[in-house]
Structures are given as structure tokens and as C-alpha cells.
Amino acid sequence: MSFQWPAMLWTLGLIPIFIGLYIRTQAQRRRLAARFGTLGIVQQAGGRPLGVRRHLPAVLFLVGLAILLVGLARPQAVVPLPREEGTVVLAFDVSGSMAADDMKPSRMEAAKAAARDFVQHQPLSVQIAVVGFSDNGFSVQAPTDDHDSILASINRLAPQRGTSLAHGIQASLSTIAARAAESPRLYSNLPPAATPTPTPVPQGSFAPAVVVLLTDGENNESPDPLGAARAAADQGVRIYTVGIGSTTGTTLHVNGFTVHTQLDEALLQQIASLTQGAYFHAQSAQDLLTIYDGLSPQLVVRPEKTELTAILAGVGSLLLLLGAAFSLLWFGRVP
């Protein structure tokens, strides 16, 4: 335990003074009782002598006062606190077929609306990133708890070209790793040192991280998405895959072009299974909202330094009130 205002602990020196005054007062009462008789000085409860119980109100008062004085020093202790935290990467398929309007106003806009709703319901302890992928993958927003920046990044997404699930997963993993490797940048006039060889990421390094991979088509670009999923699993990253569209195949008319798209549901299920995530099939904008509502970052218990002043103030006040109640009950006065 540590204290923000340790000098206030000197006030505990008042406690021995109060104890001495109490002992002196009790000695005076005994002398008066011996000289003049009880005259009502020796109190009774229910017709029986109080005995040592007569000291209980004073003990409660002194202990409560001591706790309050310790609280004045603003003590802090490391306490394990459960809370939702981690990194959530929203990875959007931005292939051309996402402009299709079988979801109103379009697949892309429905996906963005559901993602915006998800972001607005997350606590600040959750870092959220945005990634886009078509025939390559790119980071749109680094992990942050700034909801305005996240929403602005989602709004910038627009349909582009083909579909490479592996690039989407790889871009998501790179975004998570970059966040974990962040360190303060110090400027110096010294010549730059050689860049050290990066250390391989240990298995399970990013266990609190989650990727929500949303796509409407089958993978038609290299590399192998299952290899990227295994890399995610090795690093402890769970991938929740969300499929939009038809598994039998659909011909869409997008911006004057005819596009045939078919959802590879089996591949998305494999990716989710490899990473201990889950697969969802969204057939409407409402399905997307329901899916996002069901996603939750990991609940972790993390030791944090917490100020205990409020707890001590509550305990100390309770003891003072108990002391006052017993004193009024037995003696008809507050000590």
C-alpha cells in the first residue's frame, strides 16, 4: 500500500491522546462512584450491569476515527479489477460487389451502419481499429479509443476491386502488432543505429485481440487465407467471420457492371474454427446489427492501482455511527 499524502498519517498521533483522555475520564468516574455512590453513574442495560460493554462505544469511535485519519492520507493499493478490454479490428471487404443494393441502401452502407452502432456501445477500455481489404489489405485507422476518429474512418470506406481474405487477416494482424510494439519516439542528433532483427511473436501474444472479418464474396486472390488464419491462431487472435450474400451465387448489377458473387461459407467457417472464433451469416441489415450486438471483447482481470479513500471513509463513518447508536442506547448521550 502507498499513500498520496503520507504526511497526513501524522494525525494518527491524536489517537493515543484521545485514549489517554478516555482513561483519565474513566478513572475520575470511578473515584466519584467510590466517594458518592453510583448516583446513576454506573449504567445498566435491561437491569444488568454493562461491565466491559460500557467501553464499546468509545472503542468504535476511536477505531472509526483512526480509519478516517488514514483515509486522509489517500491510500492506494494494487487491486485485481475485472473489466472488458482488448483490441477489436473491424476488417471490411471493400470489393466492388459491396456496392450492391440487395441490402438497403447498399451492402457497404449497411455494414458501416452496423459497425458504427457497435463502436458507440464499446467502453473506452476497448481499442478499436479499422482495416479495409480488396485485392490487398490496408489499415484505415490504428487502434484507438477515440470513437469520433473510428467513426470517421468507417465513413471513408468505399467499394474497390477484388477479394483477398488473407490480405485482410494479415493487415489486421499487422495493425494489432504495431499497437503492441508502440514506444515513445525520442529525437536525437546521434547517428542512427542498425535496426535489430525483429523477434518472432510468441504464441498467444495477442489473446485479448479480436478481428471481425466481414465479406460478401469468395476469395479470388492470393495468398492462402487459411495460412493467414493459422498465423492469427498462433498469436491468440480470434477471428469472427461475417458472411453477406448468397452461398448459391448471385448476379449483381453494380455501377453499370454485371458482377457474379458467391459466398464461400465453408471457408469462412474454417477461418473462424481455426482461431476459436465464430461464423455468422447476415442476410439483412438487421442481421448485421444483431451479430455486432453479440460480439464482446474479452473480460480480463488486471491488477490496477486503486485509491482506497472512499472505502476507508465509508468504513470509518459506519463505525462512528455504530458507536453513537450504542452510546445513545446505553447512556442516553453521544460520547
Notes on the structure:
This protein is of the alpha/beta class. Helix content is 39%, strand content 23%. The strands form 4 sheets. A 6-stranded mixed β-sheet has the order 7-6-5-8-9-12, with helices on both faces. Strands 1-4-13 form a 3-stranded antiparallel β-sheet. A two-stranded antiparallel ribbon has the order 2-3. α6 (225-234) runs parallel beside α7 (265-274). The protein starts with a strand and ends with a helix. The model is unreliable at 39-43, 183-190 and 192-201 (pLDDT under 50).
Question: Which helices and strands appear, and what pairs or packs with what?
Answer:
Elements (H helix, E strand, L loop, with lengths): L1 E2 L10 H23 L7 E2 L2 E2 L6 H17 L2 E10 L1 E8 L13 H14 L5 E8 L3 E8 L2 H10 L8 H16 L28 E7 L9 H10 L3 E7 L5 E5 L2 E5 L3 H10 L4 E4 L2 H9 L5 E9 L1 H23 L4
Parallel strand pairs: 5-6, 5-8, 8-9, 9-12
Antiparallel strand pairs: 1-4, 2-3, 4-13, 6-7, 10-11
Helix pairs in contact: 1-2, 2-9, 3-4, 3-8, 5-6, 6-7
Mean model confidence by pLDDT: 78
* Beta-strand content estimate: 15-25%
Helical stretch tally: 9
Radius of gyration: 33 Å
**Which strand order does the major sheet show?**
7-6-5-8-9-12
Name the overall outline.
rod-shaped
Largest sheet: 6 strands, mixed
Derived structural class: alpha/beta
Helix content: 25-40%
Give the termini distance in whole angstroms.
32 Å
| Poorly predicted segments | 39-43, 183-190, 192-201
* Order of helical and strand elements: EHEEHEEHEEHHEHEEEHEHEH
How many beta-strand runs?
13
